[in-house]
Every structure is written in C-alpha cells, then in structure tokens.
Specification:
8 strands; elongated; 8-stranded mixed beta sheet
Length: 554
C-alpha cells in the first residue's frame, strides 16, 4: 500500500512550479482562505460581466467563455491547492442564477474544477514555460491547456444535459460545440496575454520602443475594428479582409517576440469576437447566398471564427517562439564562441589567436630579431612532490604559477608555457619594446619576492627557492600541432636561457653577457665569471641583484 501511494505521488508530481508559488506558499491559513474567497467572488463577477455583454441576438452563442481561462490561470499561477476557489465560485454562480444548488450547481462546480485542475496539472507536469519562447510550450498550451480540458468539460457537461428529455441529438451536438469552442477560444486568447504581461517591460525598455509599440497596437486595433466590427458604411466588401491583420501580427511577433504575438492575438481576436457578438464581420455569410435557419448560420459563423482564431493564435505564437529559439540559439552560439576565443587567448598570444580565428592561417611562424627569454625552475620540487599527495602538489604549483601569470600581465610580458615545475616567459614578442630586457629583469626580481612571500605566508608544508636564467637574442616562434597545439619558441637564445637556469644557483638570477649589456645602466649586476655551457663553450655570466647602479662589470 505504501509503495502504491509513493508511485501515485511520484506520478502526480509536477515538474515546474507555479509562477507565484513563492508568494502563495507563504500564505497563512487565514490568508489562504481569504484568497480563495476573493477568487471565488472574482469568478462569479466575471460570469456576471460576460452576460452583461450586449448581444444582437440573445440566442446567439458566446464566442468565448473567459471564466474557463480564469480558472486555469488561477491554478497555473498560484498552485493546484487553490482549486476550492473554482468550486466555490461555480457554486456562487449557480446560486445567483437560480439553478438547483445541490444538483445542477454541484455538477457544474465539479465540472469546472476538473477542467481547471486537468489543464493546470498537465501543463505543470510537463514543465510548461509561461514565457512561450519555445515551440514545445506553444504546443503544450494548445493541446493540453486549451483542447483537452475543453473537450473533457464539454463532454461532461453535455452528458449531464442528456438527462433533459427535451433536448434532441442535434441540440446536444450544437451545445457541445458551443461549450467546447468557448472554452478553447478563451484559453487561446487570454492565456498568452496574461502570462506574457510581465515580459513587456523587458521588450520596450527605451522611449522609442514604447512609441513604436504604441503605434503598432493602435494601428492593429484600428485595422481590426474596421475588418471585424466596421461602421455601417464600411461593411460591404467581398474581399477576405480578415487576413489583413496577419502582417501586423507577424511583424509584432518578430519585433517584440511572444509578448508581441500575445498582444496581436488579444487585439485581433478581441475585435473578431466583438464583431461576431454584434452580427458583423467577415464570418457571417450573406443571407441571400445561404439557406438555413439563423441558428445554423450562427453555428457556421462561429465555426469560421474558431478556425480563424486557432490559425491566428498558432501562427503568431509559433512564429514568435521560433524567432525566440533562433535568437536564443544565436546568443548561445555567440557565448560559446566568446568562451572558445577566451580559452584560445589563454593558450595563445592575442595576435596569434587573431590570426588563427580571423585569417585562418595554416602555418604560423615568425622570426624575432631580439627578445629576452626567462626560464624559472622551483628547486627540488620534483623530489618534494614525490612525498606529497597529488592534490597538494597541484595546489602549490597552481598558487605559485598563478602569481607568476599576474606578474607577466603586470609587466606586459608573454607567458609561453609551463613544463612541470618550470616557467617560461618572454619579453619583446609581437609588440616591439626597447625595454624588453628591463621588463624581464623586473619580473625576475618580483618572482623572487613572490616566492619569498609564498614561503612566509602560504599555508604549505614546504618552503621553496627559485632558480632563474635569462638570455637575450633572436628566436623563431610559431604554432605546432593540430591537436592540443601550443605556441613555442626555438633557437639558441632559448637554449642558452635554459642553460642559465639549470647551471644557476637556487635563489639567484643568472643572466648572459647579451642581457647584461642591456641591463648594466639600470640594474645591479655581479659578475660571476665564465662557465662552461654545453654546446657553446665558456660564457661570461652575471648575477642580477637589484635596480640602481652596477657593482661589478669587469
């Protein structure tokens, strides 16, 4: 039994919350009762207003039944637990209309409540979005918000009428159709207008857009009035004028999205229903050309109106949803493109990334006459990392190298890559600058200070020292590989800078004679002497100490 209850609860659970569920859930019991009573009175008031609408012929059916949309909107917006408002409102309506309260009134209340519950529950269960910005949501509204609940309600109501022996089969058929079309039309016309009302401020944020929207609505309103409820002298026309609002609806859907489509539906369908109620408009056939009773002509006119409203609503909402999906897909594509470009900029220098993206160069290789290359290595890190957990090793390297990345950006230098616990950065690449050696020297000193601060304030189990080597000269740079490609440097300048680092001393910055010549007037250099460099023989090198004057260049 418990499993059956659990499965039933899971099957009935909705996927999306009502739009105002946050407010409705916070209501105390007294507030809940007050809201239920208020909406029940609102239901009764709406029914009364509908019957106050002037009809040319009192026997003519109403083209739409707004209480059906009102009921479903309450449950869709506030939650299914507000169903007593619909039941109580229907009972109030039966009491004021003189129906037997405990028979016809109760049956009508149950029918109206079931329709509202069914439509709202299915939409919430299937994850319906009130923004109507996807074709799926438009289809859910038409099929499960309008057609299915109206079919159930009309069928249930006509079955109740079958107990009346005075009604024949033809009258029951007409009653079912009028009942069904009134509920369907009200949902199709009023649902989009109410649900998309909060979206309008986002669509018309500027004064110019507000003026454009106002002019569009006024123009569509005037055109719909002339087509569906024209003045007496303007009624004679053999042309299908009912199609004239379509271009306005298409423009509004494309310009203002689903909100524009909802406004076009409300204006156009509203005037169409008004004209039908007054016996005007293009849906009434010429009596001289069509035989039949006034009731049959009204039925044909109502059928033509319902088809028109269905086509108009489907066209406007589908077009707006398609455009919204297109715009969203374009936005997502641009976001992904921007993300890819930012990722590429994190891998490659900006000029190289631009050449790959915009010019689509197949081979990128450049010669630079003079740059300054810096190699840095964390001394003993390989040995230390073997004694530490992998997470700790990665976190420490990330902290140190992230600091180096910020220093490279501050000094306007180009980070090339990291190799294990080694860091390669270059100055004077792509953007010509005469002070590339000085900028690299400044970064080297800042890297030493950063490591010292890291040792003093970092919450790490080990202390570190850094060894740095610097050289100046020509290099070749380019992109290699087609998968996991990198931008790299080649040449003796790079190799010698690497030798300066590997043959240096922990905590020192070793520079070559070429770099020393560029730094001697700006930084303090201490002559180390000649060291034997593999592949180059003896080379004179210097220790970079600090700014200011030179100590020893002999």
């Amino acid at each position: 039994m418990a499993n059956i209850k659990l499965r039933l609860r899971k099957a009935l659970r909705v996927k999306s919350r009502p739009l105002l569920s946050g407010w409705s859930r916070r209501l105390p019991i007294g507030g809940y009762i007050a809201v239920v009573i208020s909406f029940a009175l609102g239901y009764r008031l709406l029914v009364w207003l509908v019957f106050q609408f002037p009809l040319v012929d009192s026997s003519r059916p109403l083209p739409l039944w707004p209480p059906a949309a009102y009921s479903q909107l309450i449950l869709l917006l506030l939650g299914l637990r507000f169903w007593p408002a619909i039941f109580l409102g229907s009972l109030l309506n039966a009491a004021y209309s003189g129906q037997p309260l405990w028979m016809d009134g109760a049956i009508a209340a149950v029918n109206n409540t079931i329709q509202a519950l069914l439509g709202a529950w299915i939409l919430l269960r299937l994850g319906f979005s009130a923004r109507l910005d996807h074709l799926r949501d438009v289809g859910l509204l038409i099929l499960f918000g309008a057609l299915l609940p109206a079919t159930v309600s009309a069928t249930f109501g006509v079955l109740n009428c079958c107990f009346n022996p005075e009604l024949g089969l033809e009258e029951l058929r007409r009653t079912w159709f009028f009942w069904w079309i009134g509920n369907v039309s009200s949902v199709l016309i009023l649902f989009p207008a109410v649900l998309l009302l909060p979206e309008w401020p986002r669509q018309i944020r500027s004064t110019s857009l507000r003026l454009i929207a106002l002019a569009w609505m006024v123009s569509l309103g005037l055109l719909s009035w002339l087509v569906f409820s024209p003045p007496i002298g303007f009624r004679a026309s053999t042309f299908p004028l009912e199609y004239l609002p379509f271009p306005f609806a298409v423009w509004g859907a494309l310009r203002f999205g689903p909100s524009g489509a909802a406004a076009a539906i409300l204006i156009t369908a509203g005037f169409a229903c008004l004209g039908f109620s007054q016996g005007n408009g293009p849906f009434f056939p010429n009596p001289t050309l069509l035989s039949g009773t006034p009731e049959s002509q009204a039925s044909l006119a109502l059928m033509a109106l319902s088809v028109y409203i269905s086509v108009f609503v489907t066209t406007a909402l589908s077009l707006a949803a398609s455009m919204a999906e297109h715009n969203q897909a374009r936005t997502d594509l641009l976001a992904e493109k921007d993300k890819s470009e930012r990722l590429l900029l994190n891998i490659l220098p900006q000029p190289i990334a631009v050449r790959l993206l915009e010019h689509q160069e197949q081979t990128i290789a450049d010669q630079f006459a003079e740059v300054t290359v810096l190699f840095a290595d964390i001394v003993g890190f390989t040995r230390l990392s073997s004694d530490l957990p992998p997470q700790v090793v990665v976190n420490m390297l990330n902290d140190i190298f992230s600091t180096f990345d910020r220093l490279a950006d501050r000094h306007g230098l180009e980070k090339i890559k990291t190799i294990g616990d080694s860091y390669l950065v270059v100055g004077g690449l792509h953007t010509h600058r005469d002070d590339h050696a000085a900028a690299i020297a400044a970064m080297a000193l800042d890297m030493q200070a950063a490591v010292e601060q890291f040792n003093q304030h970092g919450n790490h189990p080990q202390t570190f020292r850094i060894r740095i080597g610097i050289n100046t000269g020509p290099v070749v740079a380019g992109v290699i590989g087609t998968k996991k490609f990198i931008y790299d440097l080649w040449g003796d300048t790079v190799n010698i800078a690497s030798r300066m680092e590997s043959m240096g001393i922990a905590g020192e910055i070793q520079v070559t004679q070429a770099t020393g010549n560029l730094l001697k007037d700006l930084y303090q250099l201490e002559y180390r002497g000649e060291i034997k460099v593999k592949g180059k023989g003896l080379m004179g090198t210097y220790w970079l100490r600090d700014r200011h004057s030179m100590l020893n260049m002999s």
